[in-house]
Amino acid sequence: KPINSRLVLIHFLHLLICNQGKCVNYTLIEDVVYDGEFKSLDAIRSLIKRLRKKLPKDIIFNNLDEGYFIK
Question: How many beta carbons lie within 10 A of that of residue 54, not counting itself?
C-alpha cells in the first residue's frame, strides 16, 4: 500500500509527544509509524530530517544508536 509521507510525519511527531522525555527506539518507530514494517536506519533518519525542517531548531534530539526524543 502507498505511504502518505505527511501522515508518517504526523504519526512520528505524535509518538514523540506521547513519549516526551523518553527515548523512542527504532523498533517502536517501525511498529507505530510504519505499522511494523521494517525500515532501514537511513529511512528513519530521512524521516527525522524532514520533520526537523518543519519544526523550530533543537526540538528533536537523538541518543546515538538508540532513538529519538523531545524534552
Answer: 9
**What backbone phi and psi angles, to 5 degrees, belong to 31?**
-65, -45
**Which strand ranges, in their side-by-side order, compose the sheet holding 24-25?**
24-25, 67-70, 60-63
Q: What is the largest CA-CA distance in the chain?
A: 34
* pLDDT (tens place) for every residue of the chain, 71 residues total: 446 888 999 999 999 999 999 999 999 999 999 989 999 999 999 999 999 999 999 999 999 889 999 98
| Cα–Cα distance measured from residue 63 to residue 16, given in angstroms and rounded to the nearest whole number | 13
β-partners of residue 61 are 69
What phi, psi does 2 have (nearest 5°)?
-70, 145
Is residue 23 within 8 A of residue 69, CB to CB? The reply is: yes
